[in-house]
Amino acid sequence: MVGAGGIGCELLKTLALSGFQDIHIIDMDTIEVSNLNRQFLFRQSHVGQSKAKVARDAVLKFRPHINIKSYHANVKDPDFNVEFFKQFNVVLNGLDNLDARRHVNRLCLAADVPLVESGTTGFLGQVTVHVKGRTECYECQPKPAPKTYPVCTITSTPSKFVHCIVWAKDLLFTKLFGDKNQENDLNIRSSDGASSSENVVDVFERKEDEDVEQYGRRIFDHVFGYNIELALSNEETWKNRNRPKPIYSKDVLSDELAHQNGSVNKNLATDDGSLVSAMASLGMKNPQDIWSLSENSRIFFETLRLFFTNRGKEIGNLSFDKDDQLAVEFVTAAANIRAASFGIPLHSLFEAKGIAGNIVHAVATTNAIIAGLIVIEAIKVLKSDIKSYRMTYCLEHPSRKMLLMPVEPFEPNKSCYVCSETPLSLEINTHHSKLKDFVEKIVKAKLGMNFPIIMQGSALLYEVGDDLDEDMVANYAANLEKVLAELPSPVTSGTVLTVEDLQQEFTCNINIKHRKEFDEEKEPDGMLLSGWTQPPSALEKEDKSISNGASTSDTPIAATEAEKDEIGIVSAAKKRRLSDIVDSELSNAADEARNRNQLQVIDDEDDLVMLEGNSDGYKKKRLQ
Amino acid sequence: MDGEELTEQETALYDRQIRVWGADAQRRLSKAHVLVYGMKGTVAEFCKNIVLAGVGSLTLVDDRVATEEALSSNFLIPLDENVYNGKTLAELCCDSLKDFNPMVRVSVEKGDLLSFGVDFFNKFDVVVVSCCSLAAKKMANDRCRKLSKRVAFYTVDCRDSCGEIFVDLQDYRYSKKKLEETIECQLQYPSFEEAVSVPWRALPRKTSKLYFAMRVIENYEEAEGRNPGEVLIADLPGVLKLKKELCTAQSVNESHVPDNLLERLITNTTEFPPVCAIIGGILGQEVIKAISGKGDPLKNFFFFDALDGKGIIEDISDPNAGK
Ligand SMILES: [Zn+2]
């Protein structure tokens, strides 16, 4: 079992009751309060402990005589290699992110062990079976690309609340509390030459001996006042848009209020909550309330004050965490103030937290149902009852009277680069793109490899590993900075590169085609991978884009970004509604299936029923 | 909406599900009182689900003393005679369930379903019965219907790798979101007695065969005076005979109730844990919908068979009722 979260807890219980005697379970996460509403093997007293271990102990209480081995570890750790996977009869996934799913898919293919894959969100869920050579693998169908937003929408022309959240979280929060050296677009979009970047950077530095409240007001006036004025000076931008309204601290805080604000803090200084929460120190209780502009401003100043007075040591190293109350309060307030400026409706902290944290919706019942379905498939796999394997969708609204809909698995996709070894093609400017770009944008981001080796014929261009000697490390580091055509064994049109991941025991060949020009808007990577269809990215107009949340290219180990038990969405209508909130790791087998022209549903009657792709649900058509 | 905000503790604990059904629904859940009768594996799954969801209270009734067989699909009770010795199933389940969510009041009542009067049912908003006779199902459903308030009534049973849920929400109004609009809907449910009295001939040809098979076994139990779940493979000739009689009386082809399905259902009467999880999950979801008044509830039977993997809704009601 990979994953001891929402699906994992249910799955471990149902496996144990069903008579499974030898179960290994891997999960890198520890237990959080918000898990307790559905991860029923965990109690308040377990918060902070390893999910895998606590789940094991809990199940052994009602089935003491079975063997359960727990691993508090990342499934991508090198220990979990092909040899490790070979010891199992079947692998069951209860994962929450695309990266880990792809990784396990490759290991199961390499070890030739059947994989039962699953996911839930809200009332929707799915279970699929993947057996090498018999059914499609997890990666036979491309997964939707992460939702991203053009930089300029975020920095200058937000039109939705999520744009304000991304701005507050990825730009402002990072600028004030995160790594100062990180590239940050907070100020780049001004046509005004006067604001040279050097001056601007200084604005965000708290001066020595500067009073924290004074500092807060200066930041406020800069980002919500001055920057908006600056943007307004660019008339072109506002021809077809509503002009934003600059907001200055003096507008939102009367002297009286500012004073009161200070005194409230002192009164509550002994309260524990006020050390970590601006809401607590301001006496605001309900996270479902939508605060006024003035309340948001007070929260903004209070969060800044609390960060600098109580958490000064962390400043410079913070990154946004949805479980960090103060960070969520800051982002909510900043996003709301920006929203007010741009005439976008304000949102509650509860809603803002969901958007900022990519929190996916989760309930116990769906996880229980999906876990039951996984066990049914696992039993068929153990019996090698291949004809009975099914992918099953758990629906919110019945389709053909069905809430649980079984579908026959698809055959492997013959052009899948993962399970069929079909070579890929890459169009790239071999005179401009560096090996580094190729490694980051293709090998890691697109191919999902962790420990790649890149070869041209027998010549090694790049590899990673602990056992390399210094010369090699220096050599590879130098190669990374070279453009492809100038590598020791030059990569030009017609070259075939072999990329291999030793841990995944997965190799693929890439035919290189030199191409001079790329469309900055449509091909922002400056390269184009094809041969296996990747859906067009959500990019619209800009040369760069920002996604909500840690993008997979920044964090190859992505198990931190969402909850344990979410993926697939079955209803397209629902997906549209969630698409702004939910990260695109929503792999979506049901949607994929629907996007093919037809989908054959298992039916014990003689007539065949076909489902046609339709954005508003399943449209039925009966064939003779 | 209806007063009383959720506490900070509730908001933190229920965060993920509030994102699914909203704070109003969560408030309604926390005020709902649920009764379950018959504590086998499927009901244990259901109880876990609604205790986690945060209902106001859950009352368990099952005076049977725990045996290894009764516990085979029940994760609430350790397979340890020292723990369950002498205690009833309800008492044992109560101890574990309390632990799942300290905000839910879980308690035990003693007695037989047939002995509970109308006043007893008045204490609850939701009644779920399992492992009981046809007569007891009809009676409990009728007593719920005699109350001035609406009590949502459910029966649930699993045999072999099959499961059945029956739902009676009486006259049920609810809202659902369609695109950006919220629309008001209304459904009329028949009682259990009314539903099972609908002539088989009047049902669509493709009605789940499980529906008919479960009725045959239920009627056999009744006719032979057996305890619920105590029809065994030795009874197969009798069951097949009754099936023939019922099909003749209902003037339907005997192929509506395949012999091999009946045989399956009485060969293995113990529950199959994955099916308990699935049926307990669907039932949990339905009860949450009924309490919160959000989303389409199922009307009025649900069937799952692990053999074909289908989870099917059947509307078994007199098409002319209420017209
Ligand atoms: Zn494949």
From TrEMBL, chain A:
GO terms for biological process: protein sumoylation. ATP binds at residues 3-8, 27, 35-38, 51, 96-101. It comes from Senna tora. It is found in: Nucleus. The active site is at C152 (glycyl thioester intermediate). InterPro entries: ThiF/MoeB/HesA (IPR045886), ThiF_NAD_FAD-bd (IPR000594), UAE_UbL_dom (IPR028077), Ub-E1_IAD_1 (IPR042449), Ub_act_enz_dom_a_sf (IPR023318), Uba2 (IPR030661), UBA_E1_SCCH (IPR019572), Ubiquitin-activating_enz (IPR035985). Zn(2+) binds at C137, C140, C416, C419. Residues 426-518 form the Ubiquitin/SUMO-activating enzyme ubiquitin-like domain. It holds the Pfam family UBA_E1_SCCH. Residues 1-416 form the THIF-type NAD/FAD binding fold domain. This is SUMO-activating enzyme subunit.
UniProtKB/TrEMBL annotation, chain B:
Residues 14-310 form the THIF-type NAD/FAD binding fold domain. Pathway: Protein modification; protein sumoylation. It holds the Pfam family ThiF. GO terms for biological process: protein sumoylation. The keyword Acetylation applies. It is found in: Nucleus. GO terms for cellular component: cytoplasm; SUMO activating enzyme complex. Keywords: Acetylation, Ligase, Nucleus, Ubl conjugation pathway. Belongs to the ubiquitin-activating E1 family. This is Ubiquitin-like 1-activating enzyme E1A. It comes from Senna tora.
